[in-house]
Amino acid sequence: MVQLARPSVQSLLIQTQADGRPIATASGFLVQSRFGPLLITNRHVLTGRDQNTQQVFAPNGDTPTEVIIIHNRKDAVGQWLARVEPLYDGPVKRWFEHPVLGAKMDVAALRLTALNDVETYPFDLADPGTDMLLGPGDAVSVVGFPFGQTAGGNMLPVWATAFLASEPVQNFADLPIQLVDCRTLAGQSGAPVIAYRSSGDVAMNDGGVARFDGPVLRFLGVYGGRVTAAADLGVVWKAAALKELVDAL
Length: 249
Prior knowledge:
This protein folds into 2 domains: 6-119, Thrombin, subunit H (Beta Barrel), CATH 2.40.10; 139-239, Thrombin, subunit H, CATH 2.40.10.
């Protein structure tokens, strides 16, 4: 049996296209909701536009009409299959945004319909994981697909190491954003950001230290790209804000 770290099957490669014409690759992952599994990625991935300037990314002016999701195959760990999801019902977008922040929050949740033969490994927003102590300088991982590249096994993601660059209890730019210091690339937008420890002693938020014999993790949020193209500072949309989005559906 193939043994993989769970986040390696939770992060999914996605590709946007316009009526079958490829536009870009990105990253995403699933969460559970009252409507079933939702794909989570960045809003700018699905709009095909810069979140701030609204400029279209594609040189030919195409914007996405559908997204291809490379899912895990049911009952076959280490195998994948592609499923296409439309982004619009006529002129109406199919994805959901934050109930208060709306387009200001660069995160979108897409309800899935093509799940035949698919195995889902959703993150549980009600239980983000081990309550480990995290602060500026601590290592976390952005688990995604830079330039659409995989880390072997056909569709396994790349684990990019990042370091928390702001206090977790504070928000950046008056938005639910945590900063990270990480050399990230195009294609990692929409990736899950996690704190992952393989085993051993882990400092906890209650002031104690817990010893674990196996892997533990904490889901932190959604990677949204760099603050500017020239900086290694990236934004992570916090898990609590994502939960607000999903709970509001």
